[in-house]
Amino acid sequence: MDLKTLTYIVVGLSFALYIGVAIWARAGSTKEFYIAGGGVHPIVNGMATAADWMSAASFISMAGLIAFLGYGGSVYLMGWTGGYVLLAVLLAPYLRKFGKFTVPEFIGDRYYSDAARIVAVICLIFISFTYVAGQMRGVGIVFSRFLEVDITTGLLVGMGLVFFYAVLGGMKGITYTQVAQYCVLIFAYTIPAVFISLQLTGNPLPQLGLGSSVGDMGFLAKLDTVVTDLGFAKYTSGDKSMIDVFCITLALMAGTAGLPHVIVRFFTVPKVHDARISAGWALIFIAILYTTAPAVGAMARYNLHTTVNSALATGGDVFAPEASLEGEVRPGWMKRWEATGLIRWDDKNGDGRIQYYNEKSKDEAFLAKAEAAGWKGNELGAKAKDGSFEGKVDRDIMVLANPEIAGLPDWVIALVAAGGIAAALSTAAGLLLVISSSISHDLLKGIFVRNISEKGELMAGRIAAAVAVMVAGYLGYNPPGFVAEVVAFAFGLACASLFPTIVLGIFNKKMNKEGAIAGMLTGLFFTMAYIVYFKGIFIEPMAKNEAANWLFGISPEGIGVVGALLNVIVAYLVGKMTAPCPDHIQHLVEDIRYPRGAGTAQAH
Amino acid sequence: MSKPQDFDSKGYWSATLRLLITTLVIWFIVSFGAGILFRDALDGIHLGGYPLGFWFAQQGSIFVFVGLIFWYARRMDKIDREHDVHED
Predict the structure, then answer these.
(1) Do A381 and A419 share a domain, yes or no?
(2) Which domain holds residue A366?
(3) Which of A136, A121, A160 is nearest to A428 (CA)?
(4) Does residue A555 surpass a pLDDT of 80?
(5) Distance separating alpha carbons of residues A514 and A500, to the nearest angstrom
(6) Complex ipTM
(7) Which residues contact A16 (CB under 8 A, 6 or more apart)?
(8) Which residue from A minimizes the CA distance to B78?
(9) In this complex, do A594 and B66 lie within 8 Å of one another by their Cβ atoms?
(10) Which distant-in-sequence residues (6+ apart) come within 8 Å of B44 by Cβ?
(11) Residues of A in Cβ contact (< 8 Å) with B29
(12) Residues A435, A332: one domain?
């Protein structure tokens, strides 16, 4: 059976599984639609949270990012896991005790203000839509690369599937399909990693393999030699400044804890105790992938370099003509992926061999030797948007082509396709649900149509979910040119707007509505303005995005931390100058601080 | 079930905050401390083939986070029971 047929079968089976689960877990009430009935076991919720959280970016892009950033990739590893500690100690148990359906609902009630609730809905919609556009794009891309259909077809199939189980099943349907999707994606991720670690280091556990040795040398030390021999920066060091690494990590952590689609997952467990434990389970399931990713990245980078230059592994002369791989005999996976443009060979010096190195190296001696050897620039890269040669291999290939690079059987490749789709779909569904519930529950039921019936609200939720799927599909089909840039946006905004406001609401019972609204708006606009200033979303960037221009040397990815600080400072100052928080709200805050009496969540 | 009549809310909250601060200090030390601020110093020490600072940044901090959450949850359960505000 050829690879394509096999991929269709594996992906098709995974879809059949999701559809079956969705039919079994239909939602019959608003409580089931918003919070899956409130009776989800903490381990099940942990697994669903892991799938909800790990997006196409985690599955497809992260290992490749780490491969090329080396130590610098640690910001993603720590940033996207450390947020769960913040969730467990600062947010999840208290929001669970509060016992309502949505994040804006907490903000509206705690700050006794419809205006605060609307601001929270605006933050939520902005964060979630930017995020979901990337997921839909991810579904389209996986389809087009593995199944050789065009991106539009892939998108439509993905939309149809999400539509089916998010609209029909609400949170209940999503919860159980996410559990299934977690299983698919974690197998798809770890199986190739185990084989590659075994081949390279003899240790089947990638977490240990990364720290063990290849030949008579430590693997990481060997990798450092390999990359510096080609003029790249040492793998175990980074080129980002310490303050920037610090701020990006913190912004990703606080952003994670402030993402509405992650927070609402903790509304679905029966008890406050479960909310705490469930955060731990979620992180275990996430850690399985996140501790594997650095090994996948490092080993893929090693395999790629040593395939292209045979002298690297043996310690021979890197510049010897016969060390470079002959283009004619390049491996089959390279030829196959050239069709997608993710990797491309451009024989600049016309010697019929591939030279892959850092042509912009800071190591002058290296560049002199490269020139003496007749190397006329780096020859391995990717196809740029305008069709020209771009000197960087696409990072996604590190995961997508990994099983082929390691020579694994076809069913593993098919499984990776199914895993990539599972990662994108599970996150997209979670995001679409918080968007739809913020519209049907916060805007309609909570503010504009207070007397809507339960049935009417459920119908409104379904319609909102359906519309959100269409908008997401449109954004995925027709990305506004900044999908790659918006990751910083979603996390920065969550970090600067929702996270501090919720934490203040729990830990400072005197915080009033004026302070909270002023703080949220300050955090939101400052962060948005800073990112737009350097990244130029919708408009041309106003300054070059480089360290010399940054405020305190903090890049747009890390600026959410400053936004969060401003949020807190403004909230305190405005809070001091305006009417104090009413007594009944202070009692409400005291009430959510201890667990007893947390029934399952209730509507108003 | 609601809170008991003699619920010492101040005592409960300060015990909670103490645990919270301990947890966040550990959280900070393993990630921002060992993985970022003191990485260069720690990289001189090796854990198997890993430079220690690099290990904390790419593996160790994540393992500690997992353990930390479960430890925190167990300690919170104890505080809840001592103040008689635990769930049934």
Answers:
(1) no
(2) 316-394
(3) A136
(4) yes
(5) 15
(6) 0.94
(7) none
(8) A273
(9) no
(10) B51, B52
(11) none
(12) no
